[in-house]
Amino acid sequence: MSLDKRLHAYRDDLAESALEGQVAARRYTTGEEGRIVTAVAPLRRQPRPGAPLDTELLFGEDVTVLDRTDGWAWIKSKRDDYVGYIPTGSVGPVGPPATHRMAALRGFVFPRPDLKAPPVMTIHLGSRLTVTGESGRYSELAGGGYVYSDYLRPIDTLEDDPIAVALKFMNAPYLWGGRSSLGLDCSALVQLSWQACGIECPRDTDMQFDRFGTLINYDGDENSLRRGDLVFWKGHIGIWIDQDRFLHSNASDMMVAMAPLAFTADRIASKGEGPITGIRRPPMPTKTDT
Hints:
Layout: E1 15-16, E2 28-29, E3 32-36, E4 40-44, E5 53-58, E6 62-69, E7 72-77, E8 83-87, E9 91-92, E10 100-102, E11 106-110, E12 121-124, E13 128-129, E14 131-135, E15 138-141, E16 146-148, E17 152-154, H1 162-167, E18 179-180, E19 183-184, H2 186-195, H3 205-211, E20 214-216, E21 230-233, E22 236-242, E23 245-250, E24 255-259, H4 261-270, E25 278-281
Parallel strand pairs: 1-2
Antiparallel strand pairs: 3-6, 3-9, 4-5, 6-7, 7-8, 10-13, 10-17, 11-12, 11-16, 14-15, 15-16, 18-19, 20-25, 21-22, 21-25, 22-23, 23-24
GO molecular function, one term: cysteine-type peptidase activity
Keywords: Hydrolase, Protease, Thiol protease
Organism: Hwanghaeella grinnelliae
């Protein structure tokens, strides 16, 4: 049986218990629960620093730890099921449930509620935090540290516009496998923007093309598109906003940039990277009057 190793944890010596009977391994494990304790945890394809960066996990995201060997933890993300290796120092025990999420693009964690104190960490949009108290303009975090309260939103208070979230990342650097405001790739821009609205989204472009939203007919007439439609090429994705604005994190500009879709499509084609392969209409938040 052929399974996607990005989403299914199996090696010759070990596999996740859910795959028992589907793959051969010397033993199977349910693993142990863990939580990301660093600002960003790079998830690599193999347990070595120079291995390809497949994705990143953010502070407070929960994982299943399947194995720990030689400074690396083999994990599966509970957010999007991604499997890979992160440094063991990036994962700690699961504490109290997250109460808040980081809504600002990025912000500092201070050792005390004082803007003059040297920051101990920079956290990013989408990080999940457990707030235990308030001190003036700052929220105290479980495990120590303080974050400016205006950066945070209660965990169940969601954004209502993924395009507005995506626009926060304008000019953020492009990084293959990146998933934070310090660097992100095209599919991470989409995933983070919809996750902020409470809509889970697969991690990679091919996964998003296969199962995120509804495939629509497109004959090149942008009048048939809606704000938020996702435009795909082989290995690339971006967000259509209107006829003047198409937003994507891309390796031509090496940042999150915006240009008309026609210009972008011509530029991609001129590099021999092919035509638009499809357009999907993603789920959108349901807005309610208050």
